[in-house]
Amino acid sequence: MEAAAAANLEDVPSVDLMTELLRRMKCSSKPDKRLILVGPPGSGKGTQSPLIKDEYCLCHLATGDMLRAAVAAKTPLGVKAKEAMDKGELVSDDLVVGIIDDALKKPSCQKGFILDGFPRTVVQAEKLDEMLEKRGAKVDKVLNFAIDDAILEERITGRWIHPSSGRTYHTKFAPPKAPGIDDVTGEPLIQRKDDTPAVLKSRLESFHRQTEPVIDYYKKKGIVANLPAEKKPEEVTSVINKALS
């Protein structure tokens, strides 16, 4: 693997190499950060995580994507995960933590990570802590994207999409010229099935049930920062920067 990677560097344009080197030099002076992002669907985690990732030179660990990648690459853990999935079982917490452990060996994770969508339960949080402890590390901050369910409901259930172009509208914040109709083609708009009030309600219920205890677990360690997730993205970004400085 190492040799192959080295050979490929010859084909990388100099500009890209220099850009990456400069990025790594800039990153080397940044403090290490191990962050967990917690928040219900639509709370803005997806908007903020790339900004945090770039600012602090962290790697973004989305456990669902990592699982799929491990299965595709047929890593030892990926093979085990596939066996579980094929039987219709949930992938065990130990396996997921193992996959995170593997990912942390990559150079891009040297300065730390952003974990998104994990841990979802207190047991997962404990296993994550154990694994990090073995590496002589710990979670530095848990960013809690706190937002009222009613605001989320307005945000999410107001979203409508023009399926063929992907254009999105919002009944309140960015309405189409004519209700339910795409501005450009005049075709009808649809709502994603995840964006309907009934589905959102059940997703929020399971989020609160599972995740509130996880937030309490980290609160006892004094590392939770509550973010005003209902505010404008740039305001949330500045609160995050204060919390991480």
From TrEMBL:
CDD domains: ADK. The keyword Calcium does not apply. Residues 159-194 form the Adenylate kinase active site lid domain. Pfam families: ADK (PF00406), ADK_lid (PF05191). Its EC number is 2.7.4.3. It is an enzyme of class 2 (transferase). Keywords: Kinase, Nucleotide-binding, Transferase. PROSITE patterns: ADENYLATE_KINASE. One of its GO terms (molecular function) is ATP binding. It comes from the Eukaryota. It catalyses: AMP + ATP = 2 ADP. The keyword Heme does not apply. Belongs to the adenylate kinase family. Catalyzes the reversible transfer of the terminal phosphate group between ATP and AMP. Plays an important role in cellular energy homeostasis and in adenine nucleotide metabolism. Monomer. HAMAP family: Adenylate_kinase_Adk (MF_00235). PANTHER family: NUCLEOTIDE KINASE. This is adenylate kinase.
